[in-house]
Amino acid sequence: MSKLETLGQSLQAQFGERLKSLKLALGEATIEVDAADYLQVMQELRDSEALCFDELIDLCGVDYSTYGNDGWSGKRYAVVVHLLSVAKNWRLRVRVFAPDDAFPAVDSVVNVWSSANWFEREAFDLFGIVFPGHEDLRRILTDYGFIGHPFRKDFPISGYVEMRYDPDQGRVIYQPVTIEPRENTPRIVREENYGDV
Amino acid sequence: MAEIRNYTMNFGPQHPAAHGVLRLVLELDGEVVQRADPHIGLLHRATEKLAETRTWIQSVPYMDRLDYVSMMSNEHAYCLAVEKLLGIEVPVRAQYIRVMFDEITRLLNHLLWIGCHGLDVGAMAMVLYTFREREDLVDAYEAVSGARMHAAYYRPGGVYRDLPDRMPQYTENRFKSASTVKTLNENRTGSLLDFLEDFTNRFPTYLDEYHTLLTDNRIWKQRLVNVGVVSPERALQLGFTGAMLRGSGIAWDLRKKQPYEVYADLDFDIPVGVNGDSYDRYLVRMEEMRQSNRIIKQCIDWLRKNPGPVITDNHKVAPPAREGMKSNMEELIHHFKLFTEGIHVPEGEAYAAVEHPKGEFGIYFVSDGANKPYRMKIRAPGYAHLAAMDEMARGHMIADVVTIIGSQDIVFGEIDR
Q1: pTM of the model
Q2: Which CATH number applies to B44-412: 2.60.120.810, 1.10.10.10, 3.90.180.10, 1.10.645.10?
Q3: CB under 8 Å to B124, separation ≥6 — which residues?
């Protein structure tokens, strides 16, 4: 039995019903859990002897609203966490969808892994996903006083405001953007097996 | 008696020891740091958002600009992730070339790091020596890709082209006499591999020189030993990877533990620290340079003996040869489709990580089957390391903050993305 299958079985044994899906593809394991179970599952992933995920490698937000050609019917925002077990030498991806599209919120795992701190701040900054339980949820990558969440799919690539030095006022000012966003190569999703690939 | 209050000080964003644009808000009690709050994002370019509007191949050059002192390692993670989604095989020669250039990149990164770290801490001469060596290595970059920094040499499916047979030469001008040019060109008469072999033969001596300058140097040890100690448990909690994790005594290296490309066939050792302080991390990185040199030597040997293709012959991914395109209809179509529409990557998601000089550099892709990524996430090692700044600097003197920044090996291109 391969390592990946062993991991799959351990996950199944540990969580059973709480796993909404378990996928083993491209040599990687992905599980999906409910937002209500998320914190508890993460705690067990770290503490369980059979799984032993001692390091949180990455946490990021994903906005699924324009996924594929046919439109996305599920929840809009997801948080995707990449875990690594140094002890067991395996990896896991955990996805949890935020239940409310208007006010996306997912429990914070900062008390399980300290490294989640900045990653959650980033997801909050770029996607507007709120992490209850995080004590210091400030913006991190965008400018002081930035408005909006730039990585949402409905945020234009060139943004809303630009900054320049105004010689009349003798200071730096914000003004509406003067450049038009353009698309050199259109985004195309081909049907299955197009061109035999 | 006067009331004693904590003092808040801005360190950066324009401070030479901040390694770029770090604004560090330090809360001080006298000279002792009570709280360090890094404000980042001053170099934020939204690379991940840009990648969503570019085809898969167009984002490769953006990777160079992330961690701009280890360019090819960034491309490597990107290409590995795309290849994982596509499920294509990379020719073995391309894998060896990638590994060789990964290690050259590691030398480039560590040389810059030790030079600048020395400069920050007060060893002003280091940077002069390390830039002498870096010069040779960026020349190797230039020989394969034409660019000294932003190479865009790795492509999904292999590398852009095979190693060149001759090195660029110095020419005589107003500033360089014929005899100077002759000396400068001495090791450039052969191929790139000859040039690199000459370098790997010289490099261990250089490393010994650095050790003589720093390792037992009293000032160096006073500044580094017991500064920024991280226990192995905390290092895992804080998401450390690479030399930061190994400095704390955990023997974790993706090249050994989860080998990619041909690392499994190569012979090298993983240095591990004991105390988890800045001095141990310094020693770990110094030894890593020696090991990289060993790996480069092995790659040179293999590459000399084994010619072959360097990019996949799947023309849905890599462009066909120029001659074929001129004479063959099908290849012309492939060429046209590839350069107008780009690669189509099957629907799915993948995470690929490499042992970047700074730690684990990973790329996470969500693809919906389009000619562009749906979402790309860059996992930058420095991001997790800088997040630990508060914990590492607390209780230290303000001068030690500079040592800690230096030993974290911070580059803002990757942290701010």
Answers
A1: 0.91
A2: 1.10.645.10
A3: B118
